[in-house]
């Protein structure tokens, strides 16, 4: 039989563990989650194979916090700052969703509009694909990144991108991978199709639609979709290396037009935070349209986001240990991105890294990066 003193000691130890794992007061929980996020970022940069820098913007209601480690420029040692421009990679797909779903709400487009109706010059095998299926990555349209002709063209002329229509021409002889809606397969071609369908439906260039429908209403003054290589100043440098130091500065390796609506946008961590809060918080379209957007199927973002991933229309649901958020990830030469918000849009997290980190190229490092994504979510939801 345990003595009263021993029982009290056990109770005290248990209570101490619980208090350490999940502080009792709201303020203490905030501090604990914020400390864990900063510690995770510090540890990621400190790894021998870690990225030069990481920055996270977390917002809880009106309170916005910035966490950072490392540098944005290896030559100057300049820090990671939330107003530095960067390539946002595939998180740009959410912006194409903002354009398309806003046009759907206005009645200019329908989720049932087909590729054949709006883009009749494409491969006839694609013509039955709908706008919804392209946004959902259930279209079966092959990924342009799997095209040898496309890769050869990029290598031959990385600084001179073709027209958006030309991007799809590299796939003109490629039939669907599977019947539409029969499977999920992440495809960069899908959002090029979405951008071209929006242009065909309105007669406006996608870049103009992006500004009119998304960036201007949300006040994203530092978000653009350029065609060429140069980055607006000031910017964070993107780096890449494999088994050697110093790393290569690949910030201006590739013209944005090569990924266009699928990943060519340039923005800042602050603008990314404003965007995801507005996108998920229904500032671009109403709850009815969002209900159609939030039909989720098995499928992950690229790279994989935190927790359990499910795919909606140009958005992913991440079910983490700290709760559910909605957003997108992305990676491109020199950069890896994550952004997410709660359904109200009131709590948000953005993580930006100036190195491309994927589960296939750097699996061990990616495990730690994905943990940082989840810690950012936990800080946002603290």
Keywords:
382 residues, alpha+beta, Beta-lactamase, nine-stranded antiparallel sheet, two-stranded antiparallel sheet, 12 helices, 13 strands, globular
Provide a descriptive summary of the structure in words.
- There is one protein chain.
- The protein is α+β, with helices and mostly antiparallel strands and 382 residues long.
- It has a single domain, classed as DD-peptidase/beta-lactamase superfamily (Beta-lactamase).
- Helices cover 37% and strands 17% of the residues.
- It has twelve helices and 13 strands.
- It has helices at 4-21, 26-46, 92-106, 115-118, 131-136, 148-156, 164-169, 188-202, 206-215, 269-280, 287-293, 363-380; strands at residues 53-60, 63-73, 78-79, 86-87, 239-240, 248-249, 266-267, 297-298, 308-311, 316-320, 323-332, 335-341, 347-353.
- The protein has a nine-stranded antiparallel β-sheet with strand order 3-2-1-13-12-11-10-9-8, sandwiched between helices.
- β10 and β11 form a beta hairpin.
- The longest helix has 21 residues, at 26-46.
- It starts with a helix and ends with a helix.
- Mean pLDDT is 93; it is low at 1-24.
